[in-house]
Design a protein that fits this description.
Blueprint lengths: L12 H21 L10 H8 L14 E3 L2 E3 L9 E9 L19 E3 L7 E7 L5 E8 L7 E6 H7 L5 E7 L2
């Protein structure tokens, strides 16, 4: 096989095969690049929390008994097998404040607050009104209003198409 000004002599079978495989590879790259997932770095903390596995630290301050409005709450030792239905609400005005775990709250991210699930816990939340569900991380404490099961970030509520209050099912995944 002789090397020419065109890099490979295309008359040689190996040169043609190499050129064909390069064309195929470049074509595949171009086609698959349209399938790439868009990562919104503004929401990366909540999204990475929702998809990463976390280890619950039993001794952490956010997993100890605590008191709010004169009532004592005792977080569960484990979320294994947890499934409950109830009323969900959403919150978003706390933008930039710290969650119980110490991370910054992103109202547009996928996170939630729960009174007794160990932190962090990955959960699947299903809107019982339309059957839409998402996976998110519980990284904060609340809601502290009677009759409410979980407080969702604005981003989570939007993904579930939940306006105001709604009936949901919360299932722990870890």
């Amino acid at each position: 096989m002789a090397i020419t000004g065109n890099f490979l002599a295309l008359r040689h079978p190996l040169g043609r095969a190499l050129l064909c495989s390069v064309r195929f590879g470049l074509g595949a790259v171009v086609l698959l690049s349209g399938c790439a997932t868009h990562v919104d770095h503004g929401k990366s903390m909540a999204r990475s929390e929702a998809t990463s596995r976390f280890t619950v630290r039993q001794g952490a301050a956010y997993n100890r008994a605590y008191r709010v409005k004169g009532r004592v709450y005792r977080p569960l030792a484990s979320a294994k097998g947890y499934r409950e239905r109830g009323i969900a609400s959403w919150y978003g005005e706390e933008s930039g404040r710290r969650t119980a775990m110490g991370t910054r709250f992103d109202p547009h991210g996928l996170s939630a607050a729960h009174r007794t699930l160990p932190l962090p816990t990955r959960v699947r939340v299903t809107n019982l009104g339309n059957r839409r569900s998402i996976i998110l991380v519980v990284n904060d404490r609340g809601p502290f209003i009677d009759g409410r099961l979980i407080d969702l970030s604005r981003g989570a509520a939007k993904a579930l198409r939940l306006n105001g209050l709604g009936r949901v099912e919360v299932e722990a995944l870890d």
